[in-house]
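Hey,
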Amino acid sequence: MQRVTFVNARGESVLFGNSGPFVLQKIDGTANVSGEIKSTKSPYQDGSSFVDIQLADRQIPLQGFINAKSQQELYERRRELTRILNPKLGPGRLVYTNDAQSYAISAIPEEGPVFGDRHVHANLFVVNFIANDPYWRDENQTVKGLRFESGGMIFSLRLPTQFAFSAYRGTFINSGDVETPVEIHYKGPATNPIVESETTGEYIKVNYTLTAEDTLIINTAFGNKRVEVLNDDGTRTNVFHWIDLGSTFFQLQPGRNMLKYGSEYESEQQAATVTIYWYNKYLGG
């Protein structure tokens, strides 16, 4: 069973399924996309040296038909589909569901629906979606907190032997195919808050003082990087220029990642809460 839901920038949605007014017949472009290999070549070198690979935009052609009960309804449905799949609205959210799971992607209907043959009250159509970011994502965002943990083990000896620990770290699993950006919410108090990936050795530090009512929001997505403070009154303060010079907008690597947080004072670390948001990204669904 396959179905596709598209939600445009106005919030209007259309469902393509195995029943209803818009029936899905075929969808392509859900698997891997083509890539362009970047390489260098030196004089007298046999072959070339691999540098990188860049994936192309994802093309997602969809075929279906309108299943109406009357001629009037047929034209109403054609108008509805044309309105929702208006390419001038820009990118919308395309959700593809199969028997395993659902995947989402930002996509634009290239030229809206193209209508074909009509049979009584049915009308064939095709629409081609283009996803500039070719990666599928989980339909729902993954959310996990980084919290202060303390504890230890005391052995029943005459000597006061104790193994104690305190940690401000957690394990985060990226089950996707590639690295993925994160959005970090660091709720104060904190002086010069820092979040570090022990997996890569990278960190993001902001030389700023958060009150107990402030939340530092860091987004590491390409083209959407931001560092701002959500104030108690709901306003936002851009603190991008307060980033420590050694900071890197790190991403979660595929598999297991260990992250930790900290600030200048121990008491602040225990009172703060840090939450990580991310989507797993896939080459195909």
